[in-house]
Design brief:
The complex is a heterotrimer of chains A (328), B (512) and C (326). Chain A contains 15 helices and two strands. Chain A has 328 residues and is mostly helical. Chain A has a two-stranded antiparallel sheet. Chain A is globular. Chain B has four domains: 160 residues, P-loop containing nucleotide triphosphate hydrolases (Rossmann fold, 3-Layer(aba) Sandwich), CATH 3.40.50; 67 residues, no CATH class; 167 residues, Rossmann fold (3-Layer(aba) Sandwich); 73 residues, no CATH class. In chain B, 33% of the residues lie in helices and 23% in strands. In chain C, helix 11 crosses helix 12. Chain C is an all-alpha fold. A two-stranded antiparallel ribbon of chain C has the order 1-2. Chain C is globular, with a radius of gyration of 21 Å. Classes of the chains: A mainly alpha (328), B alpha/beta (512), C mainly alpha (326).
Chain lengths: 328, 512, 326
């Protein structure tokens, strides 16, 4: 139509400008600062094995956080992840009692995780129920089943070889869990940032109706995201069970809070639409370093949970307070 | 409330009951109102006229206490006054009937009418019996046959509107603001609304009437005020002004809408629709569409046109019906299916359905075409930018860069992005639902020109429009729908405004 | 819709009666008035918290911190009682109400002034409140022998055949009935959740209304904190752990729509009683109490599925009008 072709540039900012202005850059600076403070505060901090031990503080949670990040970006949430861990761990424990080998146990753990994810997915995407309440419900249900099976007893006696997933090292100080965490970080980073699927996740989170009107199969994408979150919870269940060597129905209690905190700290908008995997990875390190540092200072676990709660609220509140202060 | 039957003469028409003097309102990056003035007189209807974005809704929000002006004064009876909240505006006797019915589905009709100012009984508790009684009287007063005890969600749209009017009258209002009150009403309901406006005038109330429909303005308004781009342009008495003058004031230059001339080279049948039924929205929809054809769908708002189009596009499921594309039966269960089969839909609700406003332009454009721009599911940004550049430049898009969020663009440019998005999928049939609603005159012409060009290239176009000039100017053939059914198909010399309106409103020759 | 809501409450009442009847077939004493009064008394804390939660959910929010609020208030008043046994119960109750209100206000302010999503706020404050209990108590328990007799006796004191705890629940139900049906604030809760946009146009401040909902929920949690600790005569970090889920379950079962704007006091009451009957019935019919969590979870899921079905918004009716006109 128009003969005068107007030239619109692709972008006005360079990649470097975008990185520097990002939440991730700020978070990275925070992580480095915490690292320096910790190494000054405690002589035990700067030790390869101690640092390696510290990674166990976040690897299992971070695995779930990757999938949770995608789910939250797409505008949904799954509060049942810690309960999926309990149920998957209980199933593995029960199988171990009748002599299942490590490979079978892993399959059972992942299978139960997937099944729980599928259950959530059906309720949310097929029946159209709100994910917050659905997963509050399944949070009770999944852990409730563990309580029915175990009561106040515990499963132990996992077969030899199974301990590798939570206690083994791939090489030098790099544990199996840490390597798995790194591999999953890359996989999820590529999935979210480099594929059509990832683009659909962002589109849905920003405007699910608009995405649907653009020919995106919204419910299918959400279904897959719930499956992935279930699967990651299953993987975390394998690692955690293997690391602890036993299963109680209270295993992983309250972990959903730390996972959500990690995701939010990583810069994912709790209302959906934006966020990144690199952000979640850095957030995992920040939380791990802080917990480790406080642990070195002999701060008890429940006090750390105060810190997590403050972090969750503070991360969202501070930028808003800041912009309010600047606005007026 | 009390209905004081004041004769119109008793009011003093020279002193405005409510006035805005030099009111300014700025939002981050936008000056929504720049020193505008507005005067409302008792017993008179003042029409506020302006294009979308002229600042009409901002004025309504300032008058009802939702927004605070940054500068200038609001005067009631000549005295400056502030409305920190909506309740303060109500206390000053200003009430509004909003564009969308802003009511509460879960509350009863009486509660809706009296929310915020319910009659109190002992201990300051709400006196439910009196509230229901008062509501019944109010509803009766405006001729509404609605039970005040019923939950609002059980009412139809027209009755909800009456409840909104009753609510507006429940505070002893001196000023009634009507923001596009007829947009969702049927012909008969509009007539009843006009009668109600007449009644309010007789009671001496000042009425601010906001409407896009000129016939309406000339029918019921006494005065007019024109805004353009947030600025006051002019005011006066309706009887002293001509429609063309109002239009010129509104758009800033004389406009006689020129539609692009095009050759009618209609090709083979590309889409055949037969027997589309839906339990509540439409019935027995069938038609054919040829290559290179622009098929207009005309009807009143709520005739079921958009509802049918959304079913054709796979958003809602029809209870039965067959769609054939190039002679092959295609089952369309989702928009994704429709896009795969070459049918695309530009929705009326751009911000919610058309574009994903927070995402950048290029991502919006490529969203349905990702399969082509990517390789085995992996994004290729260079390809995306190439595709986005190609289609946005064809539509003469104006934007700072292709990674600007669509929400930062003007309505017209947003519409271009939505159209570019669909053209990039190389569709066979494009459905445009009110394609120029709420966009500026310049973009309007660009969209029309582009539609003509598309048809010229052999694309089959369906255009749903409620604007008669647009329907007549663009369409080769027009299907008229009324109350969920096709009532006429009009071509050639029959394509006149009169025929379309007659069919759409269900007026027979005999009754005229 | 009014009929439908009524019938939903009728269905729930019916379900509770059938449940009681079924249990009576195996254990006839269950339906005895004395036992039912016990069940009600047992359920009183759940009823109190469900009433507050209902108000919060009406405004499109959620309060997951109620159980932690209860536990923290309970610990504070219990410790106060050990330090200063002479403080009268009336003052203790006032302190509990104030402390609970304060925690509710903290939630409310974060939601109102900083627009932080309610689920995030209350997940966060939930852990913070629990952590504070540990900080002030050092993880130690306050046991029965450390509490004064008046402190422990208040909720158990029988008045006209029912313990004070039950009477408080009954009074709260009546007060909330008046609040929701006869006051401007009560109607505002419905309006804000049903149509926040329209509420602004009506002159209702959405954020402030949500703030008051949290204050009410927190106040009830504080009151229940004292009653809980006094009745069970023990306070420690984990009391009422996970109880917030039961509270949400009671509301959802009672037909309070999680999307906001729809629900009733009677519904929340019946939802709580339903869960209370189930909980008390488990040991009677020889099912391990470990089933309770799973049953609550299932009840939540079934209830929201049911609610979603009941509240499906009917689409536009275009054709019907055509038939009328024709």
């Amino acid at each position: 139509m128009s003969t005068t072709e107007r030239h619109i540039p692709d972008r006005l900012t360079t990649p470097a400008q975008r990185v520097l202005k990002s939440w991730e850059a700020l978070l990275l600076a925070v992580a480095i600062a915490i690292f320096i403070v910790n190494s000054l505060a405690s002589p035990y901090f700067l030790n390869a094995w101690n640092l390696s031990d510290a990674t166990f503080n976040f690897t299992e949670k971070a695995m779930i956080a990757f999938a949770m990040a995608l789910l939250i970006i797409a505008g949904e949430i799954d509060l049942s992840v810690a309960s999926i861990i309990a149920l998957a761990s209980t199933a593995m424990g029960a199988a171990a009692q009748v002599g299942a080998g490590p490979a079978t146990l892993v399959l059972i753990g992942l299978g139960v995780g997937l099944a729980c994810g599928a259950f959530n997915a059906v309720l949310v995407t097929v029946m159209g129920l709100p994910s917050i309440v659905v997963t509050i419900g399944t949070m009770s249900l999944f852990r409730g089943i563990s309580y029915i099976v175990l009561g106040d007893t515990a499963y132990g006696g996992y077969p030899p070889g199974f301990e590798y997933f939570g206690q083994g090292y791939v090489f030098w100080v790099f544990s199996f869990e840490f390597v798995l965490f790194a591999v999953l970080a890359v996989i999820y980073g590529v999935l979210l940032h480099k594929t059509n699927f990832g683009r659909a996740v962002y589109a849905i989170g920003n405007n699910a109706t608009g995405a649907m009107f653009s020919g995106i199969r919204v419910q299918r994408v959400k279904f897959i995201l719930f499956l992935l979150t279930g699967l990651m919870s299953g993987i975390a269940a394998v690692c955690l069970t293997s690391r602890l060597g036993s299963t109680r129905p209270s295993i992983g209690l309250g972990m959903e809070l730390e996972v959500v905190t990690m995701v939010v700290l990583g810069g994912v908008n709790i209302l959906g639409g934006s966020g990144s995997i690199p952000g979640v990875v850095i957030a995992a390190f920040v939380m791990g370093l802080v917990t480790f540092g406080l642990g070195l200072l002999n701060v008890p676990g429940i006090v750390m949970s105060i810190f997590i709660g403050l972090l969750l609220i503070g991360v969202i509140a501070l930028p808003r307070l800041w912009s309010m202060a600047r606005g007026k | 409330m009390q209905m004081q039957a004041l004769p119109a003469q008793a009011a003093t028409p020279d002193i405005p009951v409510l006035a805005l003097d030099g009111v300014t309102k700025t939002f981050p990056g936008v000056k929504a109102l720049s020193e505008v003035s507005l005067r409302l007189y008792p017993g008179q209807v003042t029409a506020l006229v302006g294009e979308n974005g002229a600042g009409k809704s901002t004025v309504v929000k300032i008058l009802t206490g939702i927004y605070q002006p940054d500068g200038g004064a609001i005067r009631v009876d000549g005295t400056p006054i502030h409305f920190p909240t909506a309740q303060d505006a109500a206390a000053a006797g200003i009430t509004a009937i909003h564009q969308e019915t802003v009511l509460f589905d879960e509350l009863s009709v009486a509660e809706n009418i009296f929310l915020g100012h319910a009659p109190r009984g002992r201990f300051g508790l709400i006196d439910n019996a009196r509230m229901v009684d008062d509501a019944r009287k109010l509803l009766h007063g405006i001729g509404a046959k609605v039970d005040p005890n019923v939950r609002l969600r059980d009412l139809g749209i027209a009755n909800k509107h009456l409840v909104a009017i009753a609510r507006a009258l429940s505070i002893d209002a001196r000023v009634v603001i009507m923001d596009e009150p007829t947009a969702a009403l049927s012909h008969k309901e509009i007539q009843e609304l006009y009668e109600l406006v007449g009644e309010l005038k007789r009671q001496g109330k000042a009425i601010l009437f906001i409407s896009h429909k000129f016939d309406e303005i000339f029918r019921i308004a006494d005065r007019y005020t024109v805004f353009r781009d947030g600025q006051f342009v002019g005011e006066g008495l309706i009887r002293d002004v001509k429609e063309s003058e109002l239009v010129r004031m509104m758009v800033g230059r004389p406009v006689d809408q020129i539609f692009p001339k095009r050759a009618h080279n209609v090709g083979a049948e590309v889409l055949q629709v037969a027997g589309y039924d839906h339990p509540t929205e439409f019935a027995d929809i069938g038609f054919t569409l040829r290559k290179g054809e622009i098929l207009g769908f005309y009807g009143l708002v709520g005739a079921g046109r958009s509802e049918f189009m959304q079913a054709l596009f796979g958003i809602t499921r029809p209870s039965k019906g067959v769609a054939k594309i190039d002679g092959q039966i295609r089952v369309i269960r989702s928009p994704a299916d429709a896009v795969e089969n070459g049918i695309v839909y530009v929705p009326e609700d751009r911000g919610r359905q058309g574009a994903i406003t927070a995402l950048p332009i290029f991502q919006n454009v490529t969203l349905p075409s990702l399969k082509r721009t990517s390789r085995s599911g992996f994004l290729r940004l260079a390809e995306e930018f190439r595709l986005a550049r190609e289609y946005t430049s064809r539509l003469d898009l104006r934007a700072a860069s292709l990674d600007t969020p669509v929400g930062n663009l003007s309505g017209g440019n947003q519409q271009k992005v939505v159209i570019a998005k669909w053209l990039a999928t190389k569709p066979k049939v494009i459905i445009l639902d009110e394609p120029t609603k709420g966009i500026d005159i310049g973009s309007k012409a660009a969209v029309h020109e582009f539609m003509a060009e598309l048809a010229g290239q052999g694309l089959a176009v369906i255009m749903v429009s409620s604007e008669i000039p647009e329907v007549l100017g663009m369409s080769d053939r027009v299907i008229v729908m009324r109350e969920g059914r096709i009532v006429a198909e009009v071509t050639g010399p029959d394509l006149t405004p009169e025929t379309l309106v007659r069919h759409a409103a269900g007026i027979t020759e005999a009754r005229r | 819709m009014t009929q439908l809501l009524k019938s939903r409450e009728a269905i729930l009442t019916g379900a509770i009666l059938v449940l009681i009847a079924l249990i009576s077939t195996r254990y006839p004493g269950f339906a005895a008035p004395g036992n039912l009064a016990n069940v009600f008394n047992d359920t009183a804390p759940l009823i109190l918290l469900a009433l507050g939660q209902m108000i919060v959910i009406l405004t499109k929010c959620i309060d997951l911190s109620v159980a932690a609020n209860l536990a923290l208030t309970g610990m504070v008043v219990a410790m106060l009682n050990t330090v200063a046994p002479g403080v009268p119960v009336a003052i203790i109750i006032l302190i509990a109400l104030a402390l609970g209100a304060l925690m509710g206000a903290a939630n409310g302010l974060l939601v109102w002034k900083l627009s932080i999503p309610p689920i995030v706020v209350t997940l966060g404050t939930m852990t913070i409140f629990r952590g504070i209990i540990f900080l002030i108590s050092d993880g130690a328990w306050v046991n029965a022998h450390e509490m004064s007799a008046p402190f422990k006796d208040f909720p158990r004191h029988v008045l006209l055949g029912l313990p004070t705890l039950s009477w408080i629940a009954i009074l709260a139900v009546l007060a909330f009935f008046v609040l929701t049906t006869r006051t401007a604030l009560g109607r505002a809760f419905f309006a804000v959740g049903g149509n926040p946009h329209a509420s602004v146009y009506t002159g209702i401040n959405v954020g402030r209304t949500q703030f008051w909902a949290y204050v009410i929920s927190g106040t009830l949690a504080g009151l229940t904190g004292y009653l809980w600790v006094a009745r069970y005569a023990v306070a420690y970090v984990d009391i009422a752990g996970g109880f917030e889920l039961d509270v949400v379950a009671a509301c959802v079962i009672g037909g309070v729509s999680i999307a906001g704007g729809s629900g009733s006091v009677i519904g929340a009451l019946l939802g709580a009683i339903f869960l209370g009957v189930v909980k008390n019935a488990l040991p009677v019919v020889n099912i391990s109490p470990f089933w309770q969590l799973a049953i609550s979870g299932t009840a939540i899921i079934v209830a929201i599925a049911f609610n979603a079905r009941a509240s499906r918004v009917p689409g536009r009716v275009i054709l019907k009008r055509a038939e009328h006109a024709a």
